[in-house]
Specification:
7-stranded mixed β-sheet; 5 helices; alpha/beta; 15 strands; Metallo-beta-lactamase, Chain A; 8-stranded mixed β-sheet; globular
Length: 258
């Protein structure tokens, strides 16, 4: 793991300063994009992308601009996490614009993503995680948040070299897992360390939730208090989901975490 912190800016007031110690808020953006907030941190995951391949949800230009220019709840973002480099998760151009407007935000991702960003911005705060494929977890620990990455193989052999990260966030007393585009593979899931994290909220791509064996294996090898499903085609029939979970719909909308 390499850490480069080029800018350090302290803020006396932040957009989440009025949240109580126990309050957590999560906003679903589009596809696999999330905004996660508690009283200490604002975290974005896979928020800025342009490709929908004709089937996935995207954000409106207005919401994209709100993220890029720091309007409303997007004013003070502490960390921006990018699961992998595919265009339905990451736009080099949009994230570069974000960095130029948020020099205080730390970008967390793989060398595959960070190397692209460095072609457009010479210096910015970043944390590069380098776990081995389906082997180990890399963790960065701060005062009120822990960010862990696990490289879980992307579906289809042509994508096996893509560094797709499962992000596990410990924010005060709450643990959230974002699975990116992890392959549905029972053998790989069994050897992964997720069960050790006492996860409260898990965000899974659709293909994790439509297999006959999914509910049992997910409960045994991930085990979360609540499951949310994203990265699904428009018009998908949610009755095909076999896991007890909530299908995320309605872009740029707050989740009911009760």
């Amino acid at each position: 793991m390499r850490i480069a912190l080029v800018f350090f800016i302290s803020f006396i007031l932040t957009s989440n300063s009025n949240l109580s110690a126990q309050e957590l808020r999560i906003k679903y953006l589009a596809n696999e994009g999330l905004l996660i907030m508690d009283k200490d941190n604002n975290v974005l995951i896979d928020p800025l992308f342009e490709e929908d391949f004709g089937i996935y949800q995207t954000l409106s230009k207005k919401v994209q601009d709100s993220i890029i220019y720091g309007i409303g709840v997007y004013k003070n973002v502490d960390y921006l996490l990018i699961s992998h480099e595919h265009r339905d998760h990451f736009s080099q151009d949009l994230v570069t614009q974000f960095i130029l407007n948020h020099p205080e935000t730390t970008i967390v991702s793989s060398d595959q993503v960070l190397s692209q960003l460095r072609t457009g911005v010479a210096t910015f705060p970043y944390i590069q995680h380098d776990p081995d494929l389906n082997q180990n977890v890399v963790t960065s620990t701060f005062a009120n948040i822990t960010i862990s990455s696990y490289w879980f193989r992307h579906p289809y052999e042509k994508n096996f070299q893509i560094k797709n990260y499962v992000f596990i966030l410990k924010m005060n007393d709450t643990t959230i897992a974002h699975f990116g585009d992890s392959e549905w593979n029972a053998n790989l899931l069994k050897k992964a360390p997720f069960r050790n994290y006492n996860i409260n909220y898990v965000f899974l791509p659709l293909w994790y939730c439509i297999k006959k064996e999914s509910p049992q294996l997910i409960e045994e090898y991930i085990h979360s208090d609540a499951y949310y499903v994203f990265h699904y085609p428009k018009g998908f029939d949610k009755s095909k989901i076999l896991l007890d979970s909530k299908l995320l719909s309605g872009t740029n909308s707050w989740l009911d975490l009760k």
